[in-house]
């Protein structure tokens, strides 16, 4: 019929209605596309990815023809797959369940069964994507989410390349659909393996089409580090070695590792958290102001920050590692790592890691950065504490200022999101007693909007093709360069030091700060 435009053609002429450069407050909605999740039956997919996709749909941020293809070995018919997705959505989505949103999402669900080395399954996948384009107008655009163990990457990447799914090339009318790949950490286990992995991925997907997930960068409070630093005048003058004494970055968890042995044993806290989340938090804290918030400019500054970041030696004194033993988490008695299901009873994997870093540039020269993370600690908390130098002179009687600590600015990443400022204040009364007080900004009180889940933001950015919140190759490699000597040093040493579950980690971590007369903040 002359004059009729198919959904397939319409998708190729789609213009983002909210992409109005004059109003930057409007969230952008993703253009026509599909997403394929490999490992769709796994934990991450059920708890984070599928709920986040629903939440995006619920906010109207996905295109009407959005299609989600699950790929896994298990034999689901499309309808069974639908049940798995709806169950995940009902259990884990952030926003309320709405039947009409679900119905339109469900219409685009497909399932492809097969193992990763199965050529026929990848041929089916290619056919399914082509059909979805015809039926629902995805524009042939597609993001492949590898929610699978890294040892499976080579085979899946080869298959995507072999079946022309990674870079399909221009269509007869010149239209070039986009293809992107999303990968989850671990990005290697040291610098050499990270380089090998990056080379492998880049053989099939050019770097600008690779989206590496560090879910911390998707958190509101982490993005707020940039707002705090670069949208205000108040902090910049004191954000340097003239005023800052030290910086403590903590990511503490109260959970243990039961059920995670397969991933965690042999990996440990430093590789699991410091290499990615904590070094990214540090990069955002120390970096210079980017010339704009274009992804390239932001990445340039983060790369400069990581290039200037060095370990402080000797590692025996400036690092600490530990392994939790049985203890009490509140009123619950919990077992130690060696008794956790699946762990080697002689495992030397650290569940607590702390390191000392410095930043070699004019702004930060001489300021120690202490990074720590651990499982089964006192409570779940992630924060960046910028500790300021003490006033050079106090014109008060010393006994009146005994309870005065250092001024601090604490960025509370989670769970109680906000910012605390600590400073000294006069205690009411006739004397001149000065004591620490806190001034608080809390997200919950200041804003009525609730924060989106990190995965909502990150998945949307993948579909929009905006890479600002994804670490590039160079950042991953620089992070390993920083961490590798610590891991080798620990590997050559004895066992990690035991610490009781429910405490704040091994004694050596306290000593690590005590050598310079400092101590950890009790979050
Ligand atoms: C993951 C780590 O990257 O982050 C886990 O592999 C950790 O070990 C998790 O539990 C913590 O994430 P969040 O968002 O709960 O702080």
From TrEMBL:
* PROSITE patterns attached to this UniProt entry: G6P_DEHYDROGENASE
Query: Which pathway?
Result: Carbohydrate degradation; pentose phosphate pathway; D-ribulose 5-phosphate from D-glucose 6-phosphate (oxidative stage): step 1/3
Record EC number: 1.1.1.49
Could you give a single Gene Ontology term from the biological process aspect?
Answer: glucose metabolic process
What are the residue boundaries of the Glucose-6-phosphate dehydrogenase C-terminal domain, all occurrences included?
A: 226-521
Q: Which reaction is recorded as catalysed by this protein?
A: D-glucose 6-phosphate + NADP(+) = 6-phospho-D-glucono-1,5-lactone + NADPH + H(+)
Residue ranges annotated as coiled coil are none
Q: Which PANTHER family match?
A: GLUCOSE-6-PHOSPHATE 1-DEHYDROGENASE (PTHR23429:SF0), GLUCOSE-6-PHOSPHATE 1-DEHYDROGENASE G6PD (PTHR23429)
Active-site residues, as the UniProt record annotates them: 277
Protein name as it appears in the record: Glucose-6-phosphate 1-dehydrogenase
Question: Which Gene Ontology terms cover its molecular function?
Answer: glucose-6-phosphate dehydrogenase activity; NADP binding
The family note in this entry says:
Belongs to the glucose-6-phosphate dehydrogenase family.
Q: Where does substrate bind?
A: 215, 219, 253, 272, 375
The highest taxon in the source lineage is Bacteria
* Known function: Catalyzes the oxidation of glucose 6-phosphate to 6-phosphogluconolactone.
Record keywords, A-Z: Carbohydrate metabolism, Glucose metabolism, NADP, Oxidoreductase
- Listed Gene3D superfamilies: Dihydrodipicolinate Reductase, domain 2, NAD(P)-binding Rossmann-like Domain
Q: Name one GO cellular component term.
A: cytosol
- Organism in which the protein naturally occurs: Nocardia camponoti
Glucose-6-phosphate dehydrogenase NAD-binding domain location, by residue? 36-224
Looking up Pfam families in the UniProt record yields: G6PD_C (PF02781), G6PD_N (PF00479)
Asked if the record carries the keyword Membrane, the reply is: no
Where along this sequence does the record place binding of NADP(+)?
73, 185
> Which NCBIfam families does this chain map to?
zwf
Keyword rRNA-binding assigned to the entry: answer is no
